[in-house]
């Protein structure tokens, strides 16, 4: 039994409860009690942590990333058509299974240091990624990327789909790791395989995550239909389908997403850095679409810091709509927590701080210079919080970060394991 006292609790529950000077008690992996300090009664044999000068909130949920791409971060960031001309070939050459394992481990640890407790990872060597994230003890959704062209671990889309089936069989009962189906995009898969993916999702009740309406060339591929209309025409859109990016939309697209209960993950850092555009979050929310947030891969937005993604979402939406009042701090916090939990189907477990929910907690240090003063707790979290303010991170009741440091890992040791491939990549790319 652990009890954390003298902290401000931002629950993000349905009542938007905030307890200014409170305690939160966990037993094993669950929150069992919380309230104001004047109601706290110590229990024999419990471990008490004095969290004075902190704010506790639900652990962040990064609803879309590609952890394995850590080694390619900051390469050719300003190159036109970087994905097809540079990154795909580099993946083929340098992303071995061991490199993906090491990079995924590094990415998971970086994410914990940023306050993220749930990751949604879509990449290759998916079983190895599951093993790594299981070892770390982070909550995660993991999907094998399915592409019709030759991949770094499978030669055909059919083989990748078979790996997905094996992943579902092996990991679906795991307490922290949840398999998902991860078709790459609308233009990188055959219609036949997309239909098989939908059938598999229905048969196994498994989430499908896919890049949709992201690229300019994608928007021309299905004319006169949009990519969203195309996916709807083959019955892909439903409450298990999670569309990522969804930058280029019209009114009909928004209505189709709403009518089919399709969810959306917005990755503003990646989209704006690439000059692709800004998601119409305002219209999506007005139509009742659940919108969560992702950092995208570390090569796209160059960060796994979901709080900066949340802040950028606010800036982009307010600017794009010329409306300072659009998306309150509370709404932005929910996009990074309970909304993302909802679209992943785990909002009964995490995403808010409530009795009987899993103990996925982020304690924020308020003693550092950027956190002064605090007039509005939620606005402070959205607009002032930086990764250095992460004090303690708990996943499923286990303390993973304490006093700003990883409890179980040495990040520098992981860096050393990745350095040899970084040197090869640097040598290869210096003249490109």
TrEMBL record:
Q: Which InterPro entries match?
A: Amidohydro-rel, Metal-dep_hydrolase_composite, Metal_Hydrolase, MTA/SAH_deaminase
Signal peptide: which range, if any?
Answer: none
Keyword terms of this UniProt record: Hydrolase
One GO MF term, please?
A: hydrolase activity, acting on carbon-nitrogen (but not peptide) bonds
Q: Which residues form the Amidohydrolase-related domain?
A: 55-398
Keyword Hydrolase belongs to the record: yes
From the Swiss-Prot or TrEMBL record, give the protein name.
Amidohydrolase-related domain-containing protein
Organism name: Erysipelothrix larvae
């Amino acid at each position: 039994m652990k009890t954390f006292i003298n902290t401000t609790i931002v629950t993000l529950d349905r009542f938007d409860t905030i307890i200014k000077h409170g305690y939160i008690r966990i037993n094993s992996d669950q929150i069992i009690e919380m309230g104001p300090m004047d109601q706290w009664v110590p229990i024999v044999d419990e471990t008490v942590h004095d969290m004075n000068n902190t704010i506790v909130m639900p652990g962040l949920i990064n609803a879309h990333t590609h952890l394995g791409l850590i080694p390619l971060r900051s390469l050719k960031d300003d190159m036109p058509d970087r994905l097809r001309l540079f990154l795909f070939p580099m993946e083929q050459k340098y992303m071995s299974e061991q490199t993906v394992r090491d990079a995924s481990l590094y990415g998971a640890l970086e994410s914990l240091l940023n306050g993220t407790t749930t990751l949604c990872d879509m990449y290759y060597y998916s079983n190895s990624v599951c093993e790594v994230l299981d070892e770390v003890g982070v909550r995660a959704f993991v999907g094998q990327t399915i592409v019709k062209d030759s991949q770094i671990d499978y030669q055909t889309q059919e083989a990748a789909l078979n790996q997905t089936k094996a992943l579902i069989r092996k990991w679906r009962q795991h307490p922290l790791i949840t398999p998902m189906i991860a078709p790459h995009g609308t233009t990188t898969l055959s219609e036949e395989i997309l239909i098989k993916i939908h059938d598999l999702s229905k048969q196994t009740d498994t989430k499908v995550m896919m890049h949709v309406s992201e690229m300019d060339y994608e928007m021309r591929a299905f004319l006169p239909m949009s990519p969203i209309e195309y996916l709807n025409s083959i019955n892909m859109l439903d409450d298990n389908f999670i569309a990522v990016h969804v930058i280029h939309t019209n009114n009909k697209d928004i209505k189709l997403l709403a009518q089919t209960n399709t969810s959306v993950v917005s990755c503003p850092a990646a989209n704006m850095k690439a000059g692709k555009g800004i998601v119409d979050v305002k219209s999506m929310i007005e139509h009742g679409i659940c919108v969560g947030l992702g950092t995208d891969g570390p090569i796209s937005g160059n960060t796994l810091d979901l709080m900066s993604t949340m802040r950028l979402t606010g800036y982009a939406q307010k600017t794009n709509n010329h409306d300072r009042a659009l998306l309150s701090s509370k709404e932005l916090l929910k996009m990074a927590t309970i909304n993302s939990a909802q679209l992943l189907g785990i909002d009964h477990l995490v995403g808010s701080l409530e009795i009987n929910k899993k103990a996925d907690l982020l304690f924020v240090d308020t003693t550092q210079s950027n956190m002064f003063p605090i007039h509005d707790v939620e606005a402070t979290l959205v607009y002032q919080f930086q990764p250095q303010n992460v004090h303690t991170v708990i996943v499923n009741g286990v303390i993973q970060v304490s006093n700003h440091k990883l409890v179980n890992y040495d990040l520098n040791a992981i860096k050393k394991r990745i350095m040899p491939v970084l040197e090869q990549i640097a040598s290869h790319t210096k003249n490109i």
